[in-house]
Amino acid sequence: MTPDDKERYSRQILFSGIGEAGQARLQNAAVAIVGCGALGSFQAEALARAGVGRLRLIDRDYVDYTNLQRQWLYDEADASNESPKAIAAARRLHQINRHVLTEPLVTDLSPSNAEELIAQSDLILDGTDNLETRYLLNDLSVKLNIPWIYGAAVASYGVVMPIVPGRGPCFACVYPDPPAGVQPACDVNGVLAAATASVASLQVAIALRLLVGNETFSATIQTLDVWTGAFRQLSAGERDPSCRVCAARHFDFLDERRRVPVSLCGRNAVQLHEHTRALNLDELATRLRPLGDVRVNEFALRLSLEKYQLTFFPDGRAIVKGTTDVGVARGVYARLIGA
After folding, report:
1. Nearest of 145, 152, 178 to residue 246 by alpha carbon
2. Strands (E) located in the chain
């Protein structure tokens, strides 16, 4: 650790839970942040300021004006330019701490790329907005023996749970299956920045504790409501001996045949994986310009129609904005690109 490092992180080093040895471990650590929205952008900034050595930023989306109310790192220029979140986040993080290596990846974490993207990480932070990806993260965590920290927020409510393989229950032990029925969502219930920041802050604190090697880990579920001031902490229980993931080691969500549409929280939009080949965005722009306003750069192509906005990515994904109905989104996509 250089003298500059000791000065920069002096207040963190003075904290008995970290010290010089812990700070050195942080500087040698690698963390994957999956999703750079309200949770992930806060996590990324906090970890960069703490001096975590490498941050891999994985996000499929672009900055929208509705993000600015609660998502850190981004500004109005990012929203106006429709910058990919991972790219905009990495640019800002370099200004905050140039010594932290940031790896922005404009892609969707999926069964086909998950192991490649996460394998070299010491810890995974959940910044996602859907349960499908969280079950995938849990499969990945158990398979690769990498801890991950679940977090979610909607309205004024939040929940946090760390998952450390072999030291407590996994996500599937506590939530064996996705809940049935309609669940609260940002589009319907809204979300407070104070709630997302509180959840992300708890996730970061747990992450630092794990990264410096703190041995006092306990599997707990923390819930909070920033509007009422309620805060609860309860045990996550023991590992389920019949758990399909950590006991039977069935990693269903890592099955490459499993690619499902995802409704994006707070976006009135659906992400589709309808195209099996990479897209040439310049060629696609030429084809689509007669239909509406087209904006294209190396990261994405945006087509604005009367009722919908479609964003196409080089990896073949598409985001259809203007509906949360998967069938409608697929129909719009098929009319423009083909079934």
Report:
1. 145
2. 30-34, 54-59, 101-106, 123-126, 148-154, 157-163, 220-225, 230-235, 262-264, 269-272, 293-296, 301-304, 309-312, 318-321
Give the separation between CA 172 and CA 139, rounded to whole angstroms: 9
The full set of domains in the chain, from first to last, is 3-254 (3.40.50.720), 268-337 (3.30.310.10)
Strands of 269-272's sheet in order across: 262-264, 269-272, 318-321, 309-312, 301-304, 293-296
Cα gap 301→297, rounded to integer Å: 6
**Secondary structure of residue 168 in the 3-state scheme:** coil
Q: What's the pLDDT at 236?
A: 92
Per-residue pLDDT band for 187 (boundaries 50, 70, 90) equals low
DSSP 3-state of 260: coil
Name 14's bridge partners: none
Q: Are 111 and 62 within 8 A, CB to CB?
A: no
> Which residues, at least 6 apart from 330, have a Cβ–Cβ distance to it below 8 Å?
261, 272, 274
Instruction: Please give the share of the chain, as a percent, with pLDDT higher than 90.
Output: 66
3-state secondary structure 12-70: HHHCCCCHHHHHHHHHCCEEEEECCCHHHHHHHHHHHHHCCCEEEEEECCECCHHHHHC
Going by C-alpha positions, the residue among 42, 43, 77, 84 that lies closest to residue 63 is 84
Classify strands 148-154 and 123-126 as parallel, antiparallel or unpaired.
Answer: parallel
Q: Which residues are CB-contacts of 13 (< 8 A; sequence separation ≥ 6)?
A: 6, 19, 20, 22, 23
Considering just the CA atoms, what is the radius of gyration of the chain in Å? Answer: 20
Beta strands in 226-261 (DSSP E): 230-235
Cβ proximity of 115 and 248 under 8 Å? no
* CA–CA dist 317, 113 (Å, integer): 14
Q: Which pTM does this prediction carry?
A: 0.83
